[in-house]
Specification:
It is a single chain. This protein has 217 residues and is of the alpha/beta class. The protein has two domains: 31 residues, no CATH class; 179 residues, Carbonic anhydrase (Beta-carbonic Anhydrase, Chain A, 3-Layer(aba) Sandwich). Helix content is 49%, strand content 14%. Strands 2-1-3-4-5 form a five-stranded mixed β-sheet. Strand 1, helix 3 and strand 2 form a beta-alpha-beta unit. It binds cobalt (II) ion. Cobalt (II) ion binds next to helix 5. The site of cobalt (II) ion (CO) has 7 residues, from helix 5.
């Protein structure tokens, strides 16, 4: 028997169901994609991008990594960002973190895990930058959750600071950058009060985002 036969069976059932509900769906989608959104999220299996926002194949361009980090030297993330903005002309970049993020918890704990420590150093930088803010929260889940909030804001700011976004804005391209947070316990997305659409809005949006708590829409 072929390995992982159950996954192939599920895939076949899914493709048949999609095709039944929408004849020609795959043939049409194969010709081109025109997603309006780029999602930058955590690799966590409990935060499946398309499913959370109810979008079908072709509607969401996706990049995921541990703790939804955006680093200016990460060619992988920057290439996704550039293709999404310059070629696909997405109108929204959504950086989505989540409460209970294992990457964020590991960054706080500081216990050596190996290679990933180098990656999580970026989250520790966020914690260092906001030490006073984090100190207001009890060590443990409350402080970890606050760092999840601050991390997604900082990573969304990093998106805004890339030459890719700066150039898109300077040529007048319509583009909004958002920071969102997902809660594993209820499956709901929260606004993190950060959604600039021009370079002049980044500083004030940042200030609002880090001085407030996320809200349900
Ligand atoms: Co995570």
């Amino acid at each position: 028997m072929r390995e992982l036969a159950e996954l192939f069976a599920k895939n076949r059932a899914w493709a048949e169901a999609v095709e039944r509900a929408n004849p020609g769906f795959f043939e049409e989608l194969a010709l081109q994609q025109s997603p309006r959104y780029l999602w930058i999220g955590c690799a966590d299996s409990r935060v499946p991008a398309n499913e959370i926002v109810g979008l079908r194949p072709g509607e969401l361009f996706v990049h995921r990594n541990v703790a939804n980090v955006v680093v200016h030297t990460d060619l992988n993330c920057l290439s996704v960002l550039q293709y999404a903005i310059d070629s696909l002309k997405v109108q929204h970049v959504i950086v989505c973190g989540h409460y209970g993020c294992g990457g964020v918890q590991a960054a706080v704990a500081g216990a050596p895990l190996g290679l990933v420590d180098n990656w999580l150093r970026h989250v520790q930088d966020v914690a260092d930058r906001h030490r006073d803010d984090l100190a207001r929260f009890e060590a443990g889940p409350a402080r970890n959750d606050r760092l999840c909030e601050l991390n997604v804001v900082e990573q969304a700011v990093n998106v805004c600071r890339t030459s890719i976004v700066q150039e898109a804005w300077s040529r007048g391209q319509r583009l909004m950058v958002h920071a969102w947070l997902y809660r594993l316990q209820d499956g709901r997305l929260r606004h993190v009060n950060f959604a600039p659409r021009a370079p002049g809005e980044v500083a004030s949006e940042y200030h609002t985002a880090i001085t407030t708590r996320p809200t349900l829409p």
